[in-house]
């Protein structure tokens, strides 16, 4: 149980973060650059923005053990994998389907927390996750009716969801013994380096992009990353990874509204039904988890 609280109420901070990350899929859809380039510059520019404010944390960085640096590299690798898979999914399926599948993050958090931290989930909460999984099945079934590419996008989003859960679980462990700002900066830099190595190996050009693309790279760094991921990493000091993962309940709603307004995307009845089941099931799961935490406290 956390013994301190942030200076601004958690719900307000979560709302800011949800609004920011809802723009992520829109910027990705607007870009014609390879997703690995988008991810690399998104994280590289974010690291550059954060670097001037990192001086107070040099002492903390010097005190980190070798095992901590290895965990930071692992967390950065998982974050890069998340972006590669999830951003790639938007090439094949709709914003709504991709972000609704991303909402399964608490399921992977639950599995990882049980395996790594021996945290058990009450059976009553599992009912909510079962409902959410049924919703994912409906989304996938509806997307199959559209094209096989849509199903491919759904699977990529599912893989990206598992990766970001791993990133968050590692972050929960590291946030207890290092400043969140230092954690975010080093993880983003590590993920950018992973992307750079990937692009180099795949022969993807680093610089041959028009000014419009560079503008999108900058927007991806400032809006969803700084005001989304950095904020959520900071919140790990005060709340659990499962609580931070509540942001995924709002992202599908915000992203779907923006996709309708800015991209003209529309969903069929099966996708909407599946999305409602996902959000409803996860809301129930998080409610039960929160009630049990308060009971234990």
TrEMBL record:
The chain crosses the membrane at residues 12-33, 69-89, 95-117, 124-141, 153-170, 182-202, 214-236, 248-264, 270-288. Keywords: Membrane, Transmembrane, Transmembrane helix. Residues 12-140, 152-284 form the EamA domain. Its main location: membrane. It comes from the Bacteria. It is a multi-pass membrane protein. It is found in: Endomembrane system. It holds the Pfam family EamA. GO terms for cellular component: membrane. Belongs to the EamA transporter family. PANTHER family: ACYL-MALONYL CONDENSING ENZYME-RELATED, EAMA DOMAIN-CONTAINING PROTEIN. This is DMT family transporter. It comes from Paenibacillus spiritus.
């Amino acid at each position: 149980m956390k013994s301190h609280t942030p200076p601004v109420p958690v719900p307000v901070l979560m709302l800011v973060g949800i609004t920011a990350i809802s723009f992520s899929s829109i910027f990705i859809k607007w870009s014609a650059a390879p997703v690995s380039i988008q991810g690399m510059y998104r994280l590289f520019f974010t690291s550059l923005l954060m670097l001037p404010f990192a001086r107070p944390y040099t002492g903390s960085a010097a005190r980190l053990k070798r095992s901590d640096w290895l965990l930071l590299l692992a967390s950065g690798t998982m974050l890069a994998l998340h972006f590669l898979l999830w951003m790639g999914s938007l090439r094949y399926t709709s914003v709504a389907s991709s972000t609704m599948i991303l909402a399964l993050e608490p399921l992977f958090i639950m599995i990882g927390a049980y395996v790594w931290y021996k945290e058990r989930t009450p059976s009553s909460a599992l009912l909510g996750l079962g409902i959410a999984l049924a919703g994912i099945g409906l989304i996938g079934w509806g997307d199959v009716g559209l094209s096989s590419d849509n199903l491919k996008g759904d699977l990529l989003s599912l893989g990206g969801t598992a990766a970001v859960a791993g990133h968050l679980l590692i972050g929960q462990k590291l946030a207890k013994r290092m400043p969140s700002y230092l954690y975010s900066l080093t993880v983003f830099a590590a993920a950018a380096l992973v992307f750079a190595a990937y692009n180099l190996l795949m022969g993807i050009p680093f610089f041959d992009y028009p000014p419009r693309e560079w503008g999108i790279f900058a927007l991806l760094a400032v809006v969803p990353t700084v005001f989304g991921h950095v904020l959520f990493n900071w919140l790990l000091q005060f709340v659990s990874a499962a609580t931070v993962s509540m942001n995924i309940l709002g992202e599908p709603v915000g992203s779907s509204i923006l996709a309708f307004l800015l991209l003209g995307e529309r969903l069929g009845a099966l996708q909407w039904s599946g999305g409602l089941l996902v959000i409803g099931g996860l809301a129930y799961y998080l409610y039960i988890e929160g009630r049990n935490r308060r009971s234990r406290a």
